[in-house]
Amino acid sequence: MAIILDGRKISKEIEKEIKAEVLACSKDGHRPPHLVAVLVGEDGASKTYVTAKMKACDVVGFKSSMIRYDDTVTEEEVLNEVNRLNNDDGVDGYIVQLPLPEHISVEKIIDRIDTTKDVDGFTPANFGKIDQEHHSLLPATPMGIIELLNRYKIETKGKHCVVVGKSHIVGMPMSILLAGPGDATVTLCHIHTQNLEEHTQKA
């Protein structure tokens, strides 16, 4: 029997849990966590995503800040901002929203991010720890999917899971989490996969 996984319902439950944790920490004299988002340019999807993150922070009691640059900002200026955030003890985590303008190297920016503040889990060090028991920060979407499966008590061990898409943001880390900690047999499909429907029907 098919099960509908209600992500909106689970997200509300998690919001309440995090809000309670933040409140408890505040009562103990600790400041709320501080998330910073660096947004470059006027990409509509990026602005929507970052705005949603800021609103989510407000809901659970996090402090949030947005740093805006227009698309003429230099690579050096963005790298300097990353350095500043790395060294700011008042910032617990941050994201540099992608995509970036073509004249800015995404690889250089990500490599400069402090792994302990890498909320997206994009740095090579964090990505390389995905399949380890004591992994660091995980990419948000794969982590959310795993949390959703866990909340619904859906066992992946020994099952055949098919992941469609091999991006380093979703597909690749998702397949690693399912095959590693999830103990599933994973088929990773992508744009060059032949007979996609045949693979998905075997899941």
Describe the structure.
There is one protein chain. With 203 residues, the protein is of the alpha/beta class. It has 2 domains: 1-118, Rossmann fold, CATH 3.40.50; 121-202, 3-Layer(aba) Sandwich (Rossmann fold), CATH 3.40.50. It is 44% helix and 14% strand. It is built from 8 helices and 5 strands, in the order αβαβαβαααβαβα. The protein has helices at residues 7-27, 44-60, 75-87, 106-112, 124-128, 140-151, 171-179, 196-201; strands at residues 34-40, 63-69, 93-96, 160-164, 185-189. The strands form 2 sheets. The chain has a 3-stranded parallel sheet, covered by helices on one side. It has a two-stranded parallel sheet with strand order 4-5. α7 (171-179) links the parallel β4 and β5 (185-189). α6 (140-151) packs across α7 (171-179). The longest helix is centred in the first third of the chain and has 21 residues, at 7-27. It is globular, with a radius of gyration of 19 Å. The two termini are 14 Å apart. 20% of the residues are buried. The mean pLDDT is 95.
Concise structural overview:
Keywords: Hydrolase, Multifunctional enzyme, NADP, One-carbon metabolism, Oxidoreductase. By secondary structure, this protein is an alpha/beta fold. The protein has helices at residues 7-27, 44-60, 75-87, 106-112, 124-128, 140-151, 171-179, 196-201, and strands spanning 34-40, 63-69, 93-96, 160-164, 185-189.
